């Protein structure tokens, strides 16, 4: 291989091919048509030596660089354009093997040309379509220690004590009012969990009773001692179940509601009529309802309706309702006190100004 045929050639690595730089600028690194001096490439005296210098400089300075295009081992265009014609077939094969060995297979380089500066970023994964894949970072949940939790609780307690012991009455009233409002919102959210969707109403044809039949059933229900209690839990599945059990042997059953708020007895009567399919005969002043099962009564397979609460859930709901009622009353009381305090301050200022 003659040195005259191997003139000073250098190779430029681009995204899709390898270009040749003229002999006047054998030590230039080009990108997008612009030549930039490369101080890392030493002078080469022969083609094979130049390849050795370029390979060593690339491995030294761009050890993790990966080229995106996949060049074939034997490309006719490369043979005719890049390599001199004076090379023998054996030498040409060696040069192509060297180029193929220096071609990296994993495309993980990113070129950044912001502010006119060429920079490379390594280690970025590139997807099948050429775009960078976003690496999901797993954020570890920070778990507070027991000591940190106690310190935090102690801090809030001290802060609350300062407000409760404040010499300013307005600060104390506002603190109580804000605390009660937070509790009210929490109780309303809790009560939403006990809302049971109502089942679609089945067609029901209530039986028409004459006045004589109503009078007879009313006297019969009053004389008999069988009854079903409705206590603080209100209407739940167990109440309807007991009514059906009493209707096995009796035509009528008394439902005693205690305690019962004014007007709540009519709500209980409407709800029990919907769930049991019975007929209301009479509502007494002592919060007692007399139900009649009907002439064509058939005991259902499921005596406790599915759209009702259980015994434990009904008691829990009652406790939240009671707490919500007392909290609402307390909020009204605090708001009234705050208004009275502002009125007192206004009167005091008037006296001072006069």
UniProtKB/TrEMBL annotation:
Transmembrane segments: none annotated. InterPro entries: At3g25440-like, RNA-binding_CRM, YhbY-like_sf. The keyword RNA-binding applies. The keyword RNA-binding applies. Residues 207-304 form the CRM domain. Keywords: RNA-binding. One of its GO terms (molecular function) is RNA binding. This is CRM domain-containing protein. It comes from Solanum pinnatisectum (tansyleaf nightshade).
């Amino acid at each position: 291989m003659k040195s005259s045929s191997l003139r000073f050639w250098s190779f430029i690595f681009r995204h899709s091919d390898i270009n040749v730089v003229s002999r006047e600028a054998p030590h230039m690194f080009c990108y997008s048509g612009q030549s930039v001096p490369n101080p890392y490439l030493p002078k080469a005296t022969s083609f094979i030596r130049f390849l050795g210098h370029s390979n060593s400089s690339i491995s030294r300075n761009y050890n993790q660089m990966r080229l995106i295009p996949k060049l074939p081992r034997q490309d006719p265009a490369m043979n005719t354009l890049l390599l001199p014609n004076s090379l023998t077939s054996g030498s040409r094969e060696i040069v192509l093997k060297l180029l193929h060995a220096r071609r990296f297979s994993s495309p993980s380089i990113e070129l950044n040309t912001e502010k006119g500066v060429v920079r490379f970023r390594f280690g970025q994964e590139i997807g099948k379509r050429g775009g960078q894949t976003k690496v999901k970072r797993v954020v570890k949940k920070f778990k507070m220690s027991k000591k940190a939790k106690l310190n935090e609780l102690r801090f809030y307690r001290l802060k609350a004590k300062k407000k409760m012991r404040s010499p300013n009455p307005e600060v104390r009233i506002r603190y109580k009012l804000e605390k009660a409002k937070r509790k009210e919102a929490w109780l309303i959210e809790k009560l939403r969990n006990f809302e049971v969707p109502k089942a679609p109403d089945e067609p029901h044809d209530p039986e028409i009773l004459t006045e004589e039949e109503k009078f007879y059933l009313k006297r019969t229900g009053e004389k008999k001692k069988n009854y079903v209690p409705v206590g603080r839990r209100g209407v739940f599945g167990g109440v309807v179940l007991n009514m059906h059990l009493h209707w096995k042997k009796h035509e009528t059953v008394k439902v005693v509601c205690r305690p019962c708020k004014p007007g709540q007895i009519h709500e209980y009567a409407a709800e029990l009529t919907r769930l049991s399919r019975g007929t209301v005969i009479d509502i007494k002043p002592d919060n007692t309802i007399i139900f009649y099962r009907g002439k064509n009564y058939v005991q259902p397979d499921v005596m406790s309706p599915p759209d009702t609460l259980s015994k434990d859930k009904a008691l829990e709901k009652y406790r939240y309702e009671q707490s919500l009622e007392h909290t609402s009353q307390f909020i009204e009381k605090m708001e009234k006190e705050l208004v009275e305090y502002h009125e007192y301050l206004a009167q005091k200022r008037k006296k001072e100004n006069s």
